[in-house]
Give the backbone structure.
Amino acid sequence: MEQFSYYTPTKVVFGKGAELKAGEMIRSYGFEKVLLHYGGGSIKRSGLYDKIVASLKENNIEFVELGGVEPNPKISLSRKAAQLCIDEGIEMILAVGGGSVLDSSKSAAAGAANHCDPWEFSSGKRVLEKSLPVGAVLTISAAGSEMSNSCVITNEDGWLKRGFGSDYNRPLFALMNPELTYTVSKYQTACGITDIMMHTLERYFCQNGDVALTDHLAEGLLRSVIDAGRIAIENPEDYEARATLMWASSLSHNGLTGCGRDYLMRCHQLEHELSGMYDRVAHGAGLAVIFPAWAKYVYRNEKALPRFSQYAVRVWGIEMDFEHPERTALAGIEATENYFRSIGMPVRLSELDIDDSGIEEMAEKCTFFGKRVLKDYIPLDKKEMIDIYRLAL
Amino acid sequence: MEQFSYYTPTKVVFGKGAELKAGEMIRSYGFEKVLLHYGGGSIKRSGLYDKIVASLKENNIEFVELGGVEPNPKISLSRKAAQLCIDEGIEMILAVGGGSVLDSSKSAAAGAANHCDPWEFSSGKRVLEKSLPVGAVLTISAAGSEMSNSCVITNEDGWLKRGFGSDYNRPLFALMNPELTYTVSKYQTACGITDIMMHTLERYFCQNGDVALTDHLAEGLLRSVIDAGRIAIENPEDYEARATLMWASSLSHNGLTGCGRDYLMRCHQLEHELSGMYDRVAHGAGLAVIFPAWAKYVYRNEKALPRFSQYAVRVWGIEMDFEHPERTALAGIEATENYFRSIGMPVRLSELDIDDSGIEEMAEKCTFFGKRVLKDYIPLDKKEMIDIYRLAL
């Protein structure tokens, strides 16, 4: 078990009606003026916006609002939000939405607290050392941003999608009512399921041994998500399935399923170039395409094979073939791919109408223009990245 | 899945050498004067005391010290520690030890911050609304107090052992180096294993359905602890086994394995009277005696039976007897009892030299002298408590 730090300070309130506590929660920290940050019109159509506003008013919380966060949130809006926070003397940001709204809020909070361009943190030019607090009312189970240290933003100038991690990115609180996710479309639900699974899978597939406890937690979480995912796709208003997905979204990316091992986000990195360059690609859908290609590329590696076999046996209930462990391992990868397909995800680039014309550029960007090699069972430089993107065609 | 709150703000630094960061960590929060609180002489013999003192001095942290915390920590020492904090203008307490030192520190912190007798919080007379921060250097894997909201103290006046929960009891940070537990005796290691398992089992055995995710996490944690426990008893210097026990001690009592379900600490309550009245009884050993008796008393209940069967199958790998689920359930209880025995725990009161003469008094105290009935599959009033204590003879 490798050394690790674990820090998950976010206060979670989980269950029916959790969103109604927004004003009271903000008040409990003594804040009096917030930025209400959200996405498109869905929170207005659903009535959630009115509930939140009522809760703020009841608790005498003054607020300024800024909507318009898009999927794959853009730095231009975060900059605008940061400036608004500075101009209006905002004390904290209340993010009402999913991962995109949360990440836009985190980026804005970083810019506002440091009076600088928030892209400086995304680009790695500057290290975050303070930020405004961010609270969340979660409306989609996917990114886990409600407890995570991560913030992923796309810069339209060059279509670069960049993430950065910092404990200052961890939200102050998260109000999580699974009912708010009933109206999430089947497609977005499936994208969320994929993203949740991938946050744990990226941590699971590493070279460190002796992490039995973390393994058991990861495998248990994956089995729960796989079952709940099937049910939620079939019946979007199944409370228990929605609750499992929502809680798993947080636990899968708050660090728990990676304690004591490396944290290699290579599928995420490969995917960021995909949805960064093809803005129509949802992050989860991109991951469903990248994972099978990546897995088939690396699973025969001697360090990878035992992990992939264990994954197949413990998560998918596949019988171990002790003579041919590579068959077991491959069966686990295929089971994952079949599952993604069964919930409506694409599993090839062609299903996203993407051909090989952009592969060279994606790989070039993913190496940060020749400045990095991704750590993995086999180090991934531009050549290997191109191979994986091609396998995904 | 029931509504729940989840709040685990403790910053964990885990791995070899973690204890050396004590001074730096305290300094990072801006504290300049601490109470160094510990137990007997073992931290001096092991050299840990010197390392901590050196780390404090390197970081210009002034400290006052108070040792002498006993197992089943006493309110008299917490009172003394609280007064010392007040008199010396202490800003935080650094607890170096296990659950007893942590609980003594939490109690003292509560008394010091509120300028009152800390027993007022234990007895339920007063609700904790602020406390001094407590940091931990953990030396034994057991109570999980390093991340938990709980504080259990014994009042020598009447030998009452009382716990109370509050988020203000949650430590600020915990430095966890598994190597520090190499010198913990086999018996104390086994007590710790039992305590860790019981923190999850108390949450596991409840009447709430639809908690698949929490179930999987709990079962995975239990399987890991059972395996690591066997290894640590055999080879006290097995790093991975010690690391698993240490991390499991925190996760088993920080709330994770109880999310979305009731939290019925009835075995703990029954045990508190046991080690409260018979001070020589270690808490873990008491639990190893109480659990099998309690389980055999309740498992046939229609709400309990499916849980006990699931436990037997998923944690102990027992084949499900679909015709006679009660046989499966009982086999799981017996497997637990055999495991406790195999690691050197007593499983009957007689092994602790306790006969039936104190049972009536323990039951009376456990009802808070007629003021409470413990919630369980079958509500536990004095009669039921006596039955369970008798089953444990």
Chain A has a mean pLDDT of 96. Chain A has two domains: 11-180, 187-391. The CA atoms of residues 75 and 155 of chain A lie 5 Å apart.
